[in-house]
Amino acid sequence: MLEVMRMRTIFLSAVVFLCTRLVGQTGLLSTEYFWDADPGQGNGIALVAVDGSYDQALELVMAQTGSLPSAGEHSFSIRAHDSDGNWGPAFTTLVQVLPGSVNFPDVQVNEGEYYWDTDPGEGSGSPLFALDGNYNDALENIGADIDQLPAPGLHVLSMRTLDVNSNWSAPFSVVVEVLTGSVTFPAIHISAAEYWFDTDPGEGAGTPMLAADGAFDNAIESIKGNAIPVPVIAGFNVLWMRAQDDDGGWGPSFGVVVNMDTTITGTVDVPEVNTDATTFVLAPNPTTADGGFRVEQQGQPQRIRIRVLDSQGRLVLDRDYGSRSKVDVALDGVATGMYPVGVFIGDQVTWHSVVVH
């Protein structure tokens, strides 16, 4: 594909004539090659079928150039072995091995680019990105920006790379058909998420997961779990998760193996949160519906607003308390469970999970 990359293999297309008595379907079992002197049938260097299987009388085979002889003229011979155990005659050709042909420079890709249809000139194409984040090999997995697809129809996509010595390769081009609608994407949002352990309870019957920012309004969400569903056996379990879009369709399940410790009690929480504006305490947590919780600012009081959601992301409370150092938040009538609580102080917002039991 690239001139900056020297091929390390020799590809040979060989028609192998087997014994004349074989007039039916001929299958190849193996092939071998040798340089100059014949080592005897079966003692040559194995050739590899490019498609991984010797199942045709005509095969594309590959020899490694790491076994090239010294520079100069040499005879190169190949022969094949059929499925009946018969070796065909050797096919020989004269090959000149040039000095340095068995040595390869340390060629690395520095950057890559692509363009559609018309060549904008070396270095002026759209950048190709190394999928591993670094162009450090002569052969790279690279990605292109599909937002820059041309209009629907047939187009020529060309790619080339730049090596570490600032040499551009020749462009590699393919004809690509851009289909109608391939450059547009539907607006997909998450409406809900759930999780379960081991056995799938059915779509919508898992334990709800919460949006970390309080709302499922994006295609990618940071989500967190609720209380661990019971019964869960201590030790290794499979934790499964899936999400639902705003059209009501559930996505595929994603599972990971986790080691559960059922001896941990209470809620792990950090009551004090530092922001650029202030420090505050949210307590008690866990709490009760009758008791509610308090938010107390440490330092110069600022305007404070409290927002409480339920496990489905629905609004339970949203109240602006003004500039006060301490506010008491009542949770009268709420059911037991975990509630995301957003604390808005000045232009800072911090979300906590408050457990009501």
Structure notes:
By secondary structure, the chain is mainly β. The chain has four domains: 9-97, Immunoglobulin-like (Sandwich), CATH 2.60.40; 109-178; 190-260; 272-356, Immunoglobulin-like (Sandwich). The protein is 0% helix and 45% strand. The protein has a five-stranded antiparallel sheet with strand order 10-9-8-11-12, with no helix packed on it. A five-stranded antiparallel sheet has the order 15-14-13-16-17, with no helix packed on it. The protein has a four-stranded antiparallel sheet with strand order 3-2-6-7, with no helix packed on it. A hairpin with an 8-residue loop joins strand 11 (153-163) and strand 12. The chain is elongated, with a radius of gyration of 34 Å. The two termini are 65 Å apart. Mean pLDDT is 75; it is low at 1-25 and 268-277.
What labels describe this entry?
25 strands, five-stranded antiparallel β-sheet, disordered N terminus, 4 domains, elongated, 357 residues, mainly beta
Question: What's the structural blueprint in terms of helices and strands?
Answer:
Elements: E1 9-15, E2 28-35, E3 45-46, E4 48-49, E5 58-64, E6 72-82, E7 91-97, E8 109-116, E9 126-130, E10 142-143, E11 153-163, E12 172-178, E13 190-197, E14 207-211, E15 223-224, E16 235-245, E17 254-260, E18 272-274, E19 279-283, E20 293-298, E21 303-309, E22 315-323, E23 326-329, E24 337-345, E25 348-356
Antiparallel strand pairs: 1-5, 2-3, 2-6, 4-5, 6-7, 8-9, 8-11, 9-10, 11-12, 13-14, 13-16, 14-15, 16-17, 18-19, 19-20, 20-23, 21-22, 21-24, 24-25
